[in-house]
Amino acid sequence: MNTRDKEYWLDRSENVTKLYRGLWALGLLLLSADLLVHRHEELAWAGTFGFYAAYGFFACVALVLAAKASSCAMGSPRHAPRAPALTRNVVDIMYVNAYIFVGGRT
Fold it and tell me: pLDDT tens digits for 46-91?
């Protein structure tokens, strides 16, 4: 059996959908746990509901944008091998979610 003929579990779109929904459910579960955990923060705004969720989200978006900017700055050639379609779809979903979160429209 050739390596290219092998089907991986993320090659099926229903598994990608399950993973995507599972990550959303986990994120919402962790965000709701923020209501139950009492923290003693030194800064008042760090204790607000969802602060660490928003901080993590924006840090992730900043890392993706920094990676994209560094890729453009290094002049990556257009004929370089592209990422697999799944990776491109996940990055596209992250961009759309970031755009919607900051108040954009699709």
Answer: 878 888 888 888 999 999 999 888 877 776 655 455 555 555 556 6
DSSP 18-72: HHHHHHHHHHHHHHHHTTT-----SSGGGGSTTHHHHHHHHHHHHHHHHHHHHHH
As given in the structure block, the two tokens for residue 100 are: 């919607």
Q: Give the single-character DSSP code of 1.
A: -
Distance in angstroms (rounded) separating the CA atoms of residues 92 and 81: 18
Record the tokens describing residue 31, joined without a space: 């965000």
Q: With a threshold of 0.70, does the pTM exceed it? A: no
How far CA 81 is from CA of 4, 6, 11, 76, 77, in Å, comes to 16, 20, 19, 10, 9
> 14-20 contacts: CB < 8 A, separation 24 or more?
16/86, 16/89, 20/93
